[in-house]
Each structure stands twice: as C-alpha cells, then as structure tokens.
Design brief:
Helix content: 10-25%
Low-confidence stretches: none
Radius of gyration: 22 Å
Mean pLDDT: 90
Number of strands: 21
Shape: globular
Largest sheet: 6 strands, mixed
C-alpha cells in the first residue's frame, strides 16, 4: 500500500494531500489544469521535497519530515512516465528499453524484456530509433522502459494526452495489464474522465492543491456537488454492471445492474464481464407518466433524490433507479412537470447514447 500525507507551498500555491492507494491497483489523480496533480506525483517520486508530512510504500518510508528522511529518487523503486515519451533519440528501442533495467527486491516476479515485448507488442521495433516511431509506439516504449526498472509503484502523468483517440484506445489495455499481470501499483494522473472510468479502482479529485474527494469511481461520479470539478459536459452517473447477454439480430449488448438491464448498441463480451457504464446527464430524459410509443429502449422507474441548482437555465437531478442516475433538465421542464424531491419519474436513455468508449471498468478485461 502507498500512503501519502504531505504539504508543500509553491509560491502562492499550497499542496495538501492525504490519501492511500492499495497495492496492485490503479488510483486515478483527477483534476483540472493547475489543480496540483503533477506537483503531487513529483513529491512522491522524490523530484521535489514536501515541507511536512510522510510518504510510505509498503514497509519502506520514502519521506518523513519528522525523521529528516528523504530517499533519493533512484532509491524509491518508482517508475515515472511523462506526457512526452522522453526517449533517448540516439539509442535504439532495445537500448532505450534496457536503460535503467533493474531487479525487484520485493519478492514479486521480475519483469523481463521478453515480458515487455509480449505485453506491449513492440518486438518488431527493437532496432529502430525514436524518430522512426509513431506517437503510440513511442509511448509504448516509454511504458516498457519504466516497467523494466521493475518498479513497485508506477507514476503516469497524463501519458495519453498527446495521442489521438485510436492510439489512446490501443494503449489503455496495456495499462490494465500492468496492474493485472505484474501486480504493479499505478498512480494515473489525468483530466480525461473516460480514461479514469475505464482504468481506475479508486479516484482522487484534486482542486487548488487540496483533495476535494476520494473513493470509488461510481461514488464520486454520482455526487452532484462535485460536478464543477469532474466536468460539467461529461457529468453523469457511472453504474457498476455485468455483461448479461448479446442480441445478434439487433447487435445489442445487455448489462445487468441492481436496477434492471441496460441495452447498449454494438457491445458483445463474455457473459459476466464486469463493466462500468458512463451515462451522461445530458443523455437522460424524464417523463412523469409511463412512456408509450417511444424508440428509447432503456426506461427505468425512479425517484428524485437530489437537485443541484446553479445560475443558468439547467438543473442536475439525482435519480434512484436501483443505482444512482443523473439527469440534466431545463428549469422550465422541471417546473412544467411539477418535479420536486421525492417525485416519481421514468428515466429514459437511448441505447445509442452509450457508446463503446463509455463502457469499461477496473480489472474488467473488456477486450
């Protein structure tokens, strides 16, 4: 387990973080630009020194201000992957990978070159130099180099930010394998909520240097009060489900959760696969009566349990359908339908509104 309790002042900015991350898990550090994400992981890596506090990885104390103890970065058994690949341009892929390779001292299996080549699919690239690689290939090599240092903790600072959608989709499964196959603890810094939903076991929300919230992704995303921090455009509930069945005639997958079944277009996986479904608030419509003659396949009876008001024409509503769901409606619709806390409603979600990138999950092995 990683435990962090640190404070550091950087000019007028004050970083204060207190959290823990389970071993062999992916913990997402999420927040807007300037929230303090990189400052936090730099302190964990030993690239900067906190003013007060302590950092411990398993039984090893990395930093303790009260003991005047701070291990040097290369003694911390931490791998660091930056936004840019930072490969050595004059070295081949093979030499980049082997640079800094080391043995593990924690008794877990050592990660070998053959493991990395198989995991990341970069065997054909070994004799190339970085200038001959695509952006996705460079990032896979950077991940491989960090893994071959056999870290106990891997820090990933927005590693996919510079890549296009397809290249990000190619690399996400590799990050899951790092946790699942090698038991490496990962801190994953991102401001892309879909990456967090897909990868993270736990989510920590940073705002202006402070931990605003931490917990399971489903819990954090269902909190109306956190929408200003988690992003208004992508705000919506995250529901834990399992893949139940596939309809080949209509190419529809069915996900089971405590509130019923959710149909998703173009999804076919192994039965029982655990998944998270991200349902954006803007994709949920409400009716007070039973819908009739509608093309919408997903209709759930629920009750309004929360209302978040802010300046403007819209409201966000929390609805209990057996799991938390969030709907965004205009103030006019809210008043016209006579809605209030406790109102019974029917929530409608188009199957086509939940695309493939909206479905993922921790240790879900969704591919």
């Amino acid at each position: 387990m990683l435990t962090v309790q640190v404070q550091k002042r950087l000019g007028n900015f004050r970083l204060s973080a207190d959290f823990s991350a389970e071993a062999a898990s992916i913990t997402a550090i999420f927040g807007k630009s300037g929230a303090g994400k990189t400052s936090l992981i730099n302190a964990i890596a030993g690239l900067s020194c906190p003013d007060v506090g302590a950092i411990q990885l398993g039984e090893t104390i990395l930093f303790d201000q009260s003991q005047n103890l701070s291990l040097r970065p290369h003694d911390r058994q931490i791998g660091y992957i930056f936004q840019d690949d930072r490969l050595f341009p004059h070295l081949t892929v093979r030499k980049n990978l082997l640079y800094g390779a080391s043995r593990r001292s924690d008794g877990l299996p050592r990660i070998e070159l053959a493991d990395v080549l198989d995991l990341l699919g970069i065997g054909p690239l070994l004799e190339r130099k970085p200038h001959a690689l695509s952006g996705g290939e460079k990032q896979r090599v950077a991940i491989g180099r960090a893994l071959l240092s056999n870290p106990r903790l891997l820090l990933m600072d927005e590693p996919l930010a510079s890549l296009d959608v397809q290249r990000r989709e190619d690399i996400l499964p590799f990050i899951e394998k790092i946790r699942d196959e090698f038991g490496v603890t990962v801190l994953y810094v991102s401001h892309a909520i879909e990456e967090v939903i897909r990868l993270a076991d736990k989510m920590i929300v940073l705002s202006e240097g402070q931990v605003a919230a931490q917990g399971a992704v489903e819990e954090i995303m269902s909190r109306l009060d956190l929408h200003p921090l988690t992003g208004r455009f992508d705000a919506g509930a995250v529901i834990a489900t399992k893949f139940a069945s596939y309809d080949p005639v209509y190419d529809l997958g069915e996900l089971a959760f405590p509130g019923g079944h959710l149909q998703v277009a173009g999804l076919n996986l192994s039965k029982g696969t655990p998944l998270r479904a991200h349902i954006r608030a803007r994709d949920v419509s409400l009716m007070t009566g039973e819908p009739e003659g509608s093309s919408v396949l997903n209709v759930f009876r629920g009750r309004i349990t929360g209302v978040r008001e802010e300046n403007g024409p819209q409201l966000d509503l929390s609805i209990d359908i057996g799991a938390p769901l969030i709907a965004r409606v205009t103030r006019k619709s809210y008043d016209k339908l006579g809605l209030k806390l406790g109102s019974e409603v029917h929530a409608m979600i188009k199957a086509v509104a939940i695309d493939r990138r909206s479905v993922g999950g921790p240790k879900g092995r969704t591919r």
